[in-house]
Write a structure and sequence with these properties.
mainly beta, 2 helices, nine-stranded antiparallel β-sheet, eleven-stranded mixed β-sheet, Jelly Rolls
């Protein structure tokens, strides 16, 4: 697996994952792979760094300068030995340490569920894995352009969560930020090994479900489901700015792996290609 600096290359090398193995996997579970991740770089036609509009009219690109990116053999790996991005006034710029979005935008069918999945592993470097606010990694499904809704399976070395948000920094009405844990779903306090993370969105029933290894972490009914979504990967903190000062840097870092981005119930091949 090749490696690169976060800003110099988004991607990596070929390996065990081939079109044949991807097709076999799709035949088994009905999923279609979004990107085979052969490397040596992330495919710029499929992935783009997030660009977050700022209150001053500029944009913030959350790619921590300390991040090390590796892509290949069907996998994306990001390692940040020590977080360095922070901001004293704009919360999204303080929280987000690394965000990559798909350029592909998926149309959700009105009459059936659609599922987005990846195999994810998370490992904290320093810090406190029991306190998710100090560092998490996630698989996102989101609508940044219209509704500002975010659905994500995320966690630390020891905890698995569902994240449900309506982002308020860019004008969404009635914003909310919810992190949910299902205490009796026992993952052996271990998210350091790859776990199959799924988000299922159903416009016909207005339901969303978050699952890890086939177990439901959270499910909500009667919620708004966007018409179109993207997928993404992220590493961030969730400590509110206090008294005009960031509290997100305390010498901690994180490593995360995302393997086999896949979709079911939507046309992956017809996903709209446009920079987020």
């Amino acid at each position: 697996m090749a490696t690169s600096h976060a800003r110099s290359a988004l991607g990596l090398g070929s390996g065990a994952v081939t079109p044949a193995t991807q097709a076999a996997a799709a035949a088994r579970d009905g999923f279609v792979t979004y990107d085979e991740l052969e490397g040596p770089h992330l495919d710029a036609a499929r992935w783009s760094p997030a660009r977050l509009p700022t209150p001053t009219g500029g944009e913030h690109i959350p790619l921590d300068p300390n991040a090390e990116l590796a892509v290949g053999e069907g996998e994306v790996r990001v390692r940040i030995p020590r977080f360095s991005l922070s901001h004293d006034t704009f919360q999204p710029a303080d929280s987000a340490k690394y965000l990559i979005f798909s350029t592909g935008q998926f149309e959700l069918p009105p009459d059936r569920p659609a599922t987005f999945a990846v195999d994810l592993a998370v490992e904290n470097i320093g810090g406190e894995p029991g306190d998710y606010r100090r560092g998490m990694a996630a698989f996102h499904v989101f609508d940044f352009e219209v509704s500002k809704r975010v659905f994500a399976v995320c966690g630390t070395s020891t905890r698995v969560f569902a994240l449900h948000e309506q982002l308020g920094a860019w004008g969404a009405g009635e914003p909310f930020y919810h992190v949910v844990e299902s205490p009796y779903e026992d993952f052996d306090d271990d998210f350091t090994r790859l776990r199959a993370c799924e988000i299922t969105l159903d416009r016909s029933s207005s339901t969303a479900a978050w699952r890890a290894d086939g177990r439901t972490v959270y499910q909500t009914h009667g919620t708004f489901i966007p018409h179109r979504v993207r997928i993404g990967v992220g590493i961030w903190t969730m400590l509110p700015i206090r008294d005009g000062r960031s509290r997100s840097l305390d010498g901690q870092g994180m490593t995360a792996r995302w393997r086999r981005f896949r979709v079911r119930g939507v046309d992956a091949g017809a996903a709209t290609r446009a920079a987020p």
